[in-house]
Amino acid sequence: MSNEMQAVAIREPGGPEVLVETTVPVPVPGKSEVLIRVKAAGVNRPDVLQRLGLYAVPADANPLPGLEIAGEVVAKGESAGRWKIGDKVMALTHGGGYAEYCCVNESHCLSVPSSLSMVEAAAVPETFFTVWYNVFMRAKLQAGETILIHGGSSGIGTTAIQLAKANGAAVITTAGSNEKCDFCKRLGADHAINYKNSDWESLVGELTDGKGVDVVLDMVAGPYMQKNINVLGRDGRYVIIAFLQGPSAELNMRAVLGKRLTITGSTLRPQTTAEKAAIATELEEKVLPLLESGKVRPIIHATFPLAEASRAHALMESSEHMGKIVLEV
Fold first, then answer.
1. Strand, helix or coil for residue 95
2. Which pLDDT tens digit goes with each residue over 134-191?
3. What whole-number distance in Å separates Cα of residue 191 and Cα of residue 181?
């Protein structure tokens, strides 16, 4: 194995064109890490925000973009005993996924199910960790409840729809075109609302007979925040995972008290190593069997060679995709 590798770096904050190929040293795994020869890397919104200079990289993180990968274990740290050389894994990274090799904490890796290709496996970690942690571990969505998922055709949305349905919940989702709404229904959504030509707040009320939903998964925020509070039912849980339309809004919070609502949220990257490991353990127990059986699957919209990461980012920012965008290495 060479001491150097090809990677994609961010030359400076800016548009997709600031993603540049570069040659960097192959990283050396820390004592609890494994070195993975990357076969594919998922593209996610935080990668775009990092490229724009709007997403602060933790001081201990790899500055290269890329938060999820799939590949083969080729080296291990002295205390890393869970995986063997040659094991096929999909992993949540602490940055550095847009590269030929990446070091990852061994507890943040999952076995690649036999039902998935490496491209499909690379589309799992970031979205499945995020959805499982927020919807099931924090909001505690239960069978028989109803969830409203915004951005249903996104990587997060397609994952949330499938996991909610697989766990017995009813799903209402929003998307930006009739085509995307039909796509969400094919994935299992009970109802899909085109937010560009419909009043989704009123329709959610009608669809729930005025009772409201039990959980809202929101990556839009901004002007959606008051409406999300309004459509929640008694003891509803509002989960915020991103701010595509801004983090600020003027809110009337009376309904929070009157309906005993819970407002929560998180981003994945600042969670501790142990917290991410706990999510991985739950995924291993409760989600890998769904992936293995084919009941749930990552939805791939497009793939690009690593060297064409800029094209992948341009597609991500166009919001024309339905499902995940993946780089092949």
1. coil
2. 999 999 999 999 999 999 999 999 999 999 999 999 999 999 999 999 999 999 999 9
3. 8
For the chain, state the CA radius of gyration: 20
- The answer to whether the predicted template modeling score (pTM) of the entire model surpasses 0.90 is yes
The 3-state DSSP class for residue 214 equals strand
Domains within the chain, CATH numbers bracketed: 4-124+269-328 (3.90.180.10), 128-265 (3.40.50.720)
d(CA 229, CA 256): 7
The C-alpha atoms of residue 155 and residue 128 are separated, in whole angstroms, by 9
pLDDT of residue 1: 81
Tell me the two tokens of residue 235. 């003891």
C-alpha to C-alpha distances, 279 to 12, 62, 196, 201, 286, nearest whole angstrom: 33, 21, 35, 32, 10
Q: Which helix (H) or strand (E) holds 204?
A: helix 200-207
Write phi, then psi, for 112 (nearest 5 degrees): -75, 120
Cα dihedral sign, 141-144-147-153: positive
Strand runs labelled E in 180-306: 191-194, 213-218, 232-240, 262-265, 300-305
Q: Which uninterrupted H or E stretch holds 255?
A: helix 254-258
Nearest to 98 by CA among 10, 31, 185, 34: 10
| 309-318 helix and 45-52 helix, angle to the nearest 10 degrees | 100
- Find tokens 């959980």 and name the residue: 215
Which H/E stretch holds residue 37?
A: strand 33-43
**16-54 per-position pLDDT tens digit:** 999 999 999 999 999 999 999 999 999 999 999 999 999
Q: Does 221 score more than 90 pLDDT?
A: yes
